[in-house]
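lol forgot to send this yesterday, sorry. struct tokens for the thing we talked abt
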């Protein structure tokens, strides 16, 4: 399944369009931008669209689908809101991917960059002009190109040393950098666990030595592991008469 995560403001409308058309409603899409979206859909017959725009909260999905023209026929849903305050769009898209297995390829079409670890699949538009023919062609190429086999479609890249030989991703550098960050994070977590285990073992050794250390007053070993003193419980408690410490 091929998925296009679609934003609307800054993609299917723009500052230039608002100034030119001066629409009397906030529910506005530019005709030329919608035409380019439909071009993408026509070029990728098995493409499905998931609405990631904030429009999914502001307007009925039926209205959005109607305004998209032919592209509306391939809309299969919308991304969830993962945080009450909204959250970052990358988290919302990832949540949709987690609950919808079988995605073989996806592209994010948006004018914002809050995609977090999914930034390597973003085709970013400008809110000044919206979707352009150049970006539309890039999206088509993203879906048509043979995939490199990185298995990153759920955003979990295993290419710690960069993409494999022959990788044809458009975003090799991001994949390599993201994989390196994941690897380094896992390495530091492993080291932290090793240090924690080493410290725990050392503390246990110290406590064991403390329990076995002879009392400097009577020579008996203390059975009180919490005292942390050089005297056993009896001597420090005042009942010892062997050395004058307690009397």
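and heres what i got for the seq, position by position
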């Amino acid at each position: 399944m091929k998925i296009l995560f679609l934003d609307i403001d800054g993609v299917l409308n723009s500052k230039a369009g608002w100034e030119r058309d001066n629409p009397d409603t906030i529910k506005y899409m530019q005709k030329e931008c919608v035409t380019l979206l439909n071009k993408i859909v026509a070029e990728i017959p098995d493409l499905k669209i998931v609405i990631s725009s904030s429009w999914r909260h502001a307007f009925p999905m039926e209205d959005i689908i109607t305004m998209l023209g032919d592209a509306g026929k391939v809309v299969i849903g919308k991304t969830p809101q993962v945080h009450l305050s909204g959250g970052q769009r990358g988290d919302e898209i990832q949540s949709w991917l987690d609950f919808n297995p079988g995605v073989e390829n996806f592209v994010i079409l948006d004018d914002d960059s809050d995609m977090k670890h999914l930034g390597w699949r973003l085709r970013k538009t400008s809110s000044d002009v919206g979707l352009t023919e150049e970006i539309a062609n890039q999206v088509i190429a993203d879906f048509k190109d043979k995939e490199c086999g990185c298995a990153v479609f759920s955003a979990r890249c295993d290419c710690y040393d960069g993409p494999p030989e022959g990788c044809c991703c458009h975003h090799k550098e991001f994949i390599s950098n993201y994989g390196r960050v994941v690897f380094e994070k896992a390495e530091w977590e492993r080291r932290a666990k090793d240090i924690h285990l080493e410290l725990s073992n050392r503390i246990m050794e110290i406590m064991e030595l403390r329990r076995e250390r002879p009392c400097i007053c009577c020579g008996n070993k203390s059975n009180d592991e919490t005292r942390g003193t050089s005297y056993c419980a009896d001597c420090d408690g005042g009942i010892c008469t062997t050395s004058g410490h307690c009397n």
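The two ends are 86 Å apart (CA to CA). anyway ping me if u want another try
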